[in-house]
Amino acid sequence: MQNISEIETLIKLISKLPGLGSKSAKRIVLKLINNRDELIKPMTKVLAEIYKNISRCKICGVLKPISIECNFSNCKLIDKKHNKICVVENISDQWSIENSSIFKGYFHILGGTLSSVGQRKEDLLINSLVERVNKDNIEEVILATSATVEGQTTAYYIQDSLKKSKVKITKLAQGLPVGGEIESLDDGTLFSAFKNRSKINSE
Ligand SMILES: [Zn+2]
User: What angle do CA 196, 202, 152 make, to 5 degrees?
Assistant: First the structure.
């Protein structure tokens, strides 16, 4: 392979994506180059648009257009329809739960777990969760963090942060396989974990 610096840079960037090593990255780059008009052109455009227009809400963590507040999607609704918040680690967990249609309520996406490498406590949206719970008359907080040590440590920390709030806190049922990450669960497992969730505080 000739050393073309742009190609090398692209391969390096793509290998940073989840599940991709340098071999898959090379195959992807070749596919892109062979489909300039069908892939590279629209992809360049949409990536630039996403970079410019989409971000995570600083309060609830969902993805939203930069230009609008969270009014119509999650945390700043004028018309509160639900009284439950489901707390997850990442946006992919939110997507899994939404796809399975087992939960009707609002989401709160922490943006990681407490013990993840390089994760600072301040970067997780925990303070804003406490504020939401107190401000929005939330009756139940469902902790849907993974059944990993990090996920459970985070759940415990959140439970502690909410101890002054008058809210019921529940945790997904034990049906979760140990080490199970929410996004990798099938709908059936997720459904029974939600349905059989248990209360973990005394409110
Ligand atoms: Zn929001």
Answer: 55
- Rounded to 10°, the helix 91-100/187-195 angle is 90
From the CA of 132, how far away is ligand 1's center (Å)?
A: 10
Model pLDDT for residues 151-203, shown as the tens digit of each residue: 989 999 999 999 999 899 999 886 556 666 787 778 888 888 888 898 988 77
CA-angle at 122, arms to 118 and 125, nearest 5°:
105
Q: How far is the CA of 96 from the centre of ligand 1 (A)?
A: 19
CA of 56 to the centre of ligand 1 (A): 8
Burial of 64 (0-12, 13-18, 19+ CB in 10 A): buried
Tokens of 101: 């249609």
pLDDT at 6 over 90: yes
- Residue 50 C-alpha to ligand 1 middle, in angstroms? 18
pTM for the whole thing? 0.82
Reading the block at residue 22, the tokens are 């340098």
Q: How far is the CA of 75 from the centre of ligand 1 (A)?
A: 4
Could you give the CA distance from residue 14 to residue 31 in angstroms, rounded to a whole number? Answer: 13
Q: Is 105 left (phi over 0), alpha (psi -120 to 50) or beta?
A: left
Distance 165 CA to ligand 1 centre (A): 20
